[in-house]
UniProtKB/TrEMBL annotation:
Organism: hydrothermal vent metagenome
GO cellular component: cytosol
Biological process annotations from GO: valyl-tRNA aminoacylation
EC number(s) per entry: 6.1.1.9
Domain Valyl-tRNA synthetase tRNA-binding arm residues, every copy: 359-421
Protein's name in the database: valine--tRNA ligase
Compartments, record wording: Cytoplasm
A Pfam family: Anticodon_1
CDD domains per the UniProt record, alphabetical: Anticodon_Ia_Val
PANTHER family cross-referenced by the UniProt entry: VALINE--TRNA LIGASE, CHLOROPLASTIC_MITOCHONDRIAL 2, VALYL-TRNA SYNTHETASES
Stretches assigned to the Aminoacyl-tRNA synthetase class Ia domain: 1-103
């Protein structure tokens, strides 16, 4: 320290918020609400947890109360979540100036994230091991999806680095989570299937997509390694050779650094267009209760030259992800009875004739509408009760208010769907 060494021991100190229990109470042994991190990692059965919290207390008269609360909060004990899920949970919750109300639902969500990464790695390995991934050279051709995910990777790397330098571990974790779950897994892996499963894909394109799958996954693992070291090390050992990376351990690999030259703005615009197209089709399918496996005919109207070019360049992507059986351009005067979505100024139309049973769908929606109106009445009655509003915890009242808004939104959506179906011939 300063006295003996002539220098301060730490120039920067990171202080996180206080970790509280799910009810917002400070954890303490006397309250019996402490959660042992080892129990979250390995799991613990209910009786062992009760004994751990209520046994050998300094204030034995509180044991019964603590045991009762423990049985209420953890009726099945605590399942095993693993070390990485616990680490990611606390990194994601480490917001500045905010205490952490810890409950199992949070860590369960991040365990699902770790499982998502495992499943993504399995898909990548299944499609790249013992195949040409371009690690030994050879010509490659990158699809718009390949160029898009590589672009988003550069942007995510910069986000993570900036947030770590600013001690915003929560924002760094959220950036990693969003990229892996929302973009790499939910979109890029699905887009890659259109390339890898098509009989018409050229070998250069296959090599390019396999190479991108592996390179992005290998970089993701290095990016997430400081937060989830065990799962990333395990997967990296199999992925690194496919990416042409040498080394005994991921721990000794350099941290990813963004390369602005690899950001392809046109590719990002193209895939954003593809996503809007696919989401529009999916929204119509969901709203009209159409079987998600049923291929749909799609009509397009008011498209620009750019829309037409993007469709031709990405036809395989929209037909595969949207489960589209055919796409046809219409003139401005043609206006068939259809459900409509917008992609910019372009209309995406799906003719309803033959796709749904009009009377059956109206009956289903009316039944659901009646149920929601009854739920609305009960919730309004509860919030109209002054005794409930005054005595219930603020968080409970706020939850009921949010529930009320959700019910009203659902009712509006159901009424809109009924109007659309009523117009069908």
């Amino acid at each position: 320290g300063l006295k003996f060494m002539g220098d301060v021991p730490f120039r920067e100190v990171y202080i996180h918020g206080l970790v509280r229990d799910a009810h917002g109470n400070k954890m303490s042994k006397s309250k019996g609400n402490v959660i042992d991190p080892i129990d979250l990692i390995d799991g613990i059965d209910l009786e062992s947890l009760v004994e751990k919290r209520a046994g050998s207390m300094m204030q034995p008269h509180l044991a019964e109360k603590i045991a009762k609360q423990t049985r209420k909060d953890f009726p099945n004990g605590i399942p095993s979540f693993g070390t990485d899920a616990l680490r990611f949970t606390f990194a994601a919750m480490a917001s500045t100036g905010r205490d952490i109300n810890f409950d199992l639902n949070r860590i369960e969500g991040y365990r699902n994230f770790c499982n998502k990464l495992w499943n993504a790695a399995r898909y990548v390995l299944m499609n790249t091991e013992e195949k040409d991934c371009g690690q030994n050279g050879g010509e490659t051709a990158l699809s718009s999806a390949d160029r898009w995910i590589l672009s988003r990777l550069q942007q995510t790397e910069q986000q993570v680095i900036d947030n770590i330098q600013n001690y915003r571990l929560d924002l760094a974790a959220q950036a990693i989570y969003s990229f892996i779950w929302d973009e790499y897994c939910d979109w890029y892996l699905e887009l890659s299937k259109a390339v890898l499963t098509s009989e018409n894909t050229a070998e250069t394109a296959l090599r390019g997509t396999r190479q991108t799958l592996v390179q992005v996954l290998e970089t993701i693992l290095r990016l997430a390694h400081p937060i989830i070291p065990f799962i990333t090390e395990e997967i990296w050992q199999r992925v690194a050779p496919l990416a042409g990376v040498e080394g005994e351990t991921i721990m000794r690999q350099p941290y990813p650094q963004p390369d602005e030259m690899r950001i392809d703005e046109p590719a990002m615009a193209e895939i954003d267009w593809v996503k809007q197209f696919v989401l529009g089709v999916r929204k119509i399918r969901s709203g009209m209760n159409i079987d998600p496996r049923k291929p749909l005919p799609v009509l397009l109207q008011n498209g620009s030259t750019t829309d037409q070019q993007r469709l031709e360049a990405n036809r395989d992507f929209v037909t595969s992800l949207g489960r589209v059986e055919s796409i046809e351009w219409l003139g401005e005067q043609e206006d068939p009875e259809s459900a409509t979505a917008l992609v910019g100024e372009m209309k995406v139309l799906i003719p309803m004739a033959g796709l749904i049973d009009k009377e059956a769908e109206q009956a289903r929606l009316n039944k659901e509408l009646d149920r929601k109106h009854n739920e609305l009445e009960r919730t309004e009655k509860k919030l109209g009760n002054a005794s409930f509003v005054d005595k219930a915890p603020a968080a409970v009242v706020e939850k009921e208010k949010n529930k009320l808004e959700d019910i009203r939104t659902t009712i509006r959506q159901l009424e809109e769907q009924l109007e659309k179906i009523a117009k069908l011939r």
